[in-house]
Structure formats: structure tokens, C-alpha cells
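Tutorial, part two.
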Amino acid sequence: METIWKRETYMPILHIKQPEIISVKRNLRLRKYDGNITFALEWYQDLDMIYLVDGNREPYTLERLKTMYEYLDKKGELYFIEVLEKGEYRPVGDVTFCREDMPIVIGCKEYRGRGIGRDVIAALIARAKELGYTEIFVEEIYSYNTASQKCFESVGFQPYKKTDRGAGYRLLLEPAGIEAREEDGALEKASLCGNMTEVKFYDSVEDELLKFAVILARTDEKWVFCKHRERDTYEVPGGHREPGETILEAARRELYEETGAIEFDIQPVCVYSVTGPENPGRSQESFGMLYFARVYRFEKELHSEIEKIILSEELPDNWTYPEIQPKLIAEAKRRNIF
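Running the prediction step on this input gives:
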């Protein structure tokens, strides 16, 4: 069975608009999650599949399924896997794409063992390259889930760490638009035009355009940076705006979730936008609100995917988003915010 355990922590794909459709093959596609899930409940009554996914044999209720899908949709790009049958597309499984994990389930039994999982993973590897990722991960595949092991290994994933019940997998990537060539005895890398990330700043935009909140935080005259447990890089706190939230509420929530800040002052700096490669030959501008916060007290423990925070007088050399976040700090400084 082409299934994989659904991990507990993800990082959202910031500043990138999720495609409505990803074409995998002539008769196979990925369709963006739209909230309609009733048809998928049948997949999660298969106790053998649930054992491979969750490590137990408890069938899902509709409420549990809804909770899972909402969580995955928030933390990554959630798609339904659809096969073209008699002129109509039929959903047969689901997959979530993010840098830290790629949980996939082929829910319809009759479509297992046909290579659909492999084709879907290959398509999402291509998307990871388009986004400039240099590596992607599968958090854990259980030791008894040999089908998933073979599926991911067939497209190049290799185990890189042991886990309690199996292994974590990793794939090293060459980003799309990067060509390795040997020239004058030296290996050079050349980027194709159009794959650069552009950051712009505005005083205001329509509220509904603001999808992200990023917070430049300081405490005792030091910067507050976050380190995700799956990375060796650092970033400022921030994330997606959730349904029903004001952008300020999103900023306060993200600052608390990612740093443990419980006493702070926060103020808006400006609107920023990021334009980067979305699909070949096309780019998409997305907008967020930049905030500045002074933190006076933190909780003792973090309760998110963030492993730790660091307090530093200097900016880090190893940014998670080197083409974006240093520019946000420079703009705040230019506006005399700190």
C-alpha cells in the first residue's frame, strides 16, 4: 500500500500560492483541497491502511477526518489525487506537500500497486525544485511499511535517521533552473532568468490580500530568531493568517506559538510582498504585514515545531529565507523602527 504516516509538525509554505491543479500525467492530476471530504471517509475505514498511516486500527469519524485535513491544509499544500475515468476525474487518495514531509495515501484499494504514488511523488519533487528547495524530507516511514519505503526510494529518497518505529527519509535536490556544467575544468552553476525572488514594500493594501504576518522581534536589545527542529537555519517568527483572524491577531498568535512570547508590545511596520517562481513562465505576488515587537517575557517551553529560539545582537549567516527576511529587517531599519 502506498501510504505513509502523517507526521505531527509541519512548516507552512510562506509566500507561495498553491496551484489549483497539478497535472501529473495525461489521466492523473492533483486537485487543491476545497473542504469537500465526505467521499474520502470510506478510505479511512480500511483498518489495514490506517495501521500503516497511524500505527493503530481505529477507523476515522467524519469529524476526525475533517480535523486532519484542516490541519494538513494549514501546514502544507493539501491535494486530492484524481484519476480520469470515463471523461470525469475520480478522487482516489490524498497527499500533502511541504519541505518537511510528504504524507500520501492511495485510498481506493483498486488503485494501489499501479504506480500512482510514485508518479505523484515525482510531480511534487518537480514542484519542490521549482520552489528552489535543495532537500525535502519524509518525517517517518514505519519499518513494516515496505510499500512506502520502496515507493519513496524508487524516486531517490534515502533513509537518513532512525526513528522510534522506522526511519526518516531525505532527498537532495538540484533546484529547477540550475544547470551544472563543466567549463574550463571547473563546475559552475548558472541560474536561468526569472527564478529570482523579489521583495517589495507598500504602506497599505486591501486587507483581504494580507495572507501572512511576519514579526521582527527584539528583547533586551537582542534579536529573537527561531530554529525549526528539522533545519539548521534561522528565521524570524511568522506564518499564515487563519480564517476569521485579523492580520494583527495572526501576528500575535504566530509570535506566541513560535517564540513563547507572552508579554510584548507590537506595532505594524509596513506591507511587504514577495514575487517568486510559481509556474514556469509565470510569477505570483503575495502580500503580508510586517510587524515589530519588543518582548518582555517568554514562556519556559515552546509548544510548536520550533526547536528553540536564540537571542543575538547579530543577524544570522544561515537564514532559512535568505532572499526575503534580511530585506524585511533592512526596510524596518530604513523606516527608523528600531
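The chain has two domains: 21-172, 198-334. In part three we will examine how such features are distributed along the chain.
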